[in-house]
Structures are given as structure tokens and as C-alpha cells.
Specification:
Elements (H helix, E strand, L loop, with lengths): L5 H26 L3 H6 L19 H9 L24 H10 L3
Helix pairs in contact: 1-3, 1-4
This protein binds calcium ion.
Length: about 100
């Protein structure tokens, strides 16, 4: 029986978890138009663009990059500053919500 390295399982589970949350957030934002406006009014001075893979728009390739760096903080060796969309030093749920508002499929 093939044994996968633990890091592989962690990456898959983290990606699947974020995918589920993304699905829920996208369903919620389509049912309540204007979510992005509310997020933008909370006082974040600058929101980075979520286009991480260099292709037009924010799509699944960008999501995979985002999911790979989720739950990291400044000081972690694999912290990717591009993913900290709200600039608070942690790649967390707030960044995910900003990512979801920019997601175009
Ligand atoms: Ca952040």
C-alpha cells in the first residue's frame, strides 16, 4: 500500500477545507450582493489584488496558490506576503474573504 508523506495529506486537507469555505462564501456573496463593499469599508488601507498566477482574472490557479499558503504568519519560513491581502501579517480568513470577492472563476 502506498504511503503518502504527511505534508501531502496536510496540503490536500487544507486545500479541501478552503475549497469548501470558498464554495460557501461564493454562494453567500451571490445571494447578498454588496459583500465586497462592506469589507472595503472596514478600514483596510489597501487590499492587494488576488491575481497570483499572472493569468488574467482571479481563478482556480490563484486559489491553489492561496490555499497553499493559508494559515501562515510573518516569521514563518514559507510565509508569502502576496497572499496577505489585507496586510495584517497573517494569511487568514479575512484574506480569504477578500480573495473570494475577487474570484472570477
Ligand atoms: Ca492577512
Amino acid at each position: 500500500m502506498t504511503q503518502f508523506p504527511l505534508a501531502f495529506h496536510e496540503t490536500v486537507m487544507r486545500t479541501l477545507s478552503v475549497l469548501f469555505v470558498l464554495f460557501i462564501a461564493l454562494m453567500s456573496s451571490s445571494a447578498h450582493a454588496g459583500t465586497g463593499v462592506v469589507i472595503g469599508s472596514l478600514g483596510a488601507p489597501e487590499v492587494k489584488l488576488a491575481d497570483l498566477d499572472g493569468t488574467p482574472g482571479v481563478g482556480f490557479g490563484d486559489f491553489l496558490i492561496f490555499a497553499g499558503g493559508f494559515n501562515r504568519s510573518e516569521g514563518d519560513s514559507d510565509f508569502d506576503d502576496r497572499l496577505d491581502l489585507n496586510g495584517d501579517g497573517t494569511i487568514g480568513f479575512g484574506d480569504f474573504l477578500l480573495f473570494a470577492t475577487q474570484f472570477s472563476g
